[in-house]
Amino acid sequence: MHLIKLNNREDIMTISKQDVLEAFKFRSACRYYDPAKKISKADMDYILELARLSPSSVGSEPWKFVVLQNPVIREKIKPVTWGIKHPMDEMSHLVVILAKKNARYDSDFFRTSLEKRGLTPEQMEATLARYKSFQTDDIKVLESDRALFDWCSKQTYIALANMMTGAAMIGIDSCPIEGFNYAEVNRILAEEGLFDADEYGVSCMVTFGYRAREITKKYRKPAEDVIEWIE
Ligand SMILES: Cc1cc2nc3c(=O)[nH]c(=O)nc-3n(C[C@H](O)[C@H](O)[C@H](O)COP(=O)(O)O)c2cc1C
User: Using CA of residue 73, residue 76, residue 82, residue 86, what is the dihedral sign?
Assistant: First the structure.
């Protein structure tokens, strides 16, 4: 079921606010998937494209998205992944989101991510100097490996949200997953060769599929408790 109706008007696609709000209300943490319903490759490609197109601080794209469909590896992480409450084979897809480690302004990773912008050597040096000051003085992420990893991990949550919202817009369910032992999941997946543990670490996961049952009411604080306008 496609929740969003696109009106192609002079090549400008318009989506009504009501349609978007409906998608946000439809999106609920899904803990029970219908094992008989699997997401098509085209729909998963769409969801992953939303991740790839997501914004990140200074355009660093400090992430990778590992679609973990292998049943043997899924079973291996199950004992340390208490946040996935249903059997591993009920969900349609599991995406493990990795965040970059050591994404310092003076790393090859950073330089490479800047090269895609086609900067001149002078612009490159000026930009790196700006990012040095940004990472050192402003957001102070160079004080520990953890702080630097967490900064990249924060970026991945933007992609996480975009994937879930975009999925909801075409009627696909999801559940973000932080409920797991990070050290163990990192160890198992790195041992399985999914990534180089010196370069990447698991930031979070997200399950996708189609709900097997209705999801109960959404609980949210009232707007006046969480939104403040300073005029
Ligand atoms: C970053 C993050 C991690 C989460 N981890 C888990 C998890 O491991 N297992 C789970 O069942 N739900 C998890 N949730 C789902 C939340 O419990 C749920 O989003 C919240 O209660 C609000 O409900 P709603 O998503 O249905 O609106 C997580 C949510 C977020 C945003």
Answer: positive
Q: Which residues sit opposite 9 in a β-bridge? A: 12
Q: What range does the domain containing 182 cover?
A: 36-102+145-211
* CA of 176 relative to ligand 1 center, distance in Å: 6
| 178 in contact with ligand 1, CB cutoff 6 A | yes
Contact 95, 87 (CB under 8 A): no
d(CA 142, CA 140): 6
Element (H, E) at 200: strand 200-209
Instruction: Specify if 29 maps to a domain.
Output: no
In a domain, 226, yes or no: no
d(Cα 65, Cα 169) in Å, to the nearest integer?
A: 20
Amino acid type, 53: L
Using the mean position of ligand 1's atoms as its centre, give its distance from the Cα of residue 164 in Å: 12
Shortest-distance Cα residue to atom 19 of ligand 1: 29
- Domain count of the fold of the chain: 1
Residue spans of alpha helices (H) in 170-222 = 182-191
Q: pLDDT (tens digit, 9 = 90+) per residue, 125-173?
A: 999 999 999 999 999 999 999 999 999 999 999 999 999 999 999 999 9
Cβ of 85 closer than 6 Å to ligand 1, yes or no, is yes
CATH number at residue 174: 3.40.109.10
Q: Which atom of ligand 1 is nearest to the CA of 218?
A: 27
- Is pLDDT at 4 greater than 90 in this prediction? no
